[in-house]
UniProtKB/TrEMBL annotation:
GO terms for molecular function: FMN binding; oxidoreductase activity, acting on NAD(P)H. Pfam families: Flavodoxin_4. Residues 3-153 form the Flavodoxin-like domain. It comes from Clostridium aciditolerans. InterPro entries: Flavodoxin/NO_synth, Flavoprotein-like_sf. This is Flavodoxin. SUPFAM superfamilies: Flavoproteins.
Length: 155
């Protein structure tokens, strides 16, 4: 049986709720990426911080989440859509964990921007991985949408 890991970063717990649903439905293990420095709780301040980090390609130090994924075959990778890309903690994970020959399945939560460039950016960071079709949703997703997507990708 293939081993599944659900890795995510969540700012406001929306992506976390989605990650938990995916882990529940796939019987996968779950791992939260926690940056050393939290983002500001004020949305406007946080967006300024994040935009700057994304533009610089910044990889924040993670307190947890960079443990080996050697025993896993499938890595579901979740993030909020921030300025059409993934959150900087995801970049830290992608650059510091060996994902060669793993199958990566992206998912994101968003406020109307869909995936933006998230899938493309993950593929650029992981040229020796297989990237499956992802799932993008707003905060009002339901369990059936997640089930349909997981069935569609054959996991």
């Amino acid at each position: 049986m293939s081993k599944i890991l659900v890795v995510f970063y969540s700012f406001s717990n929306t992506t976390k709720r989605l990650a938990e649903k995916i882990a529940e439905q796939t019987e996968g293990d779950i791992r939260e990426l926690i940056p050393e420095k939290s983002y500001a709780f004020n949305y406007n301040t946080a967006t300024k911080e994040v935009r700057n980090e994304i533009e610089r390609g910044y990889c924040p130090k993670l307190l947890s989440g960079e443990e080996s994924v050697a025993s896993y075959d499938y890595i579901f990778l979740g993030t909020p859509n921030w300025f059409k890309s993934f959150a900087p903690p995801i970049l830290s994970f992608l650059r510091n964990v060996d994902l060669q020959e793993k199958t990566i399945i992206p998912f994101c939560t968003h406020g109307g921007g869909g995936f933006g460039q998230i899938e493309i950016n993950i593929a650029k960071e992981c040229p020796k991985s297989t990237i499956l079709s992802g799932f993008a949703t707003m905060s009002n997703f339901d369990k059936r949408q997640v089930t349909d997507w997981i069935e569609e990708i054959g996991i």
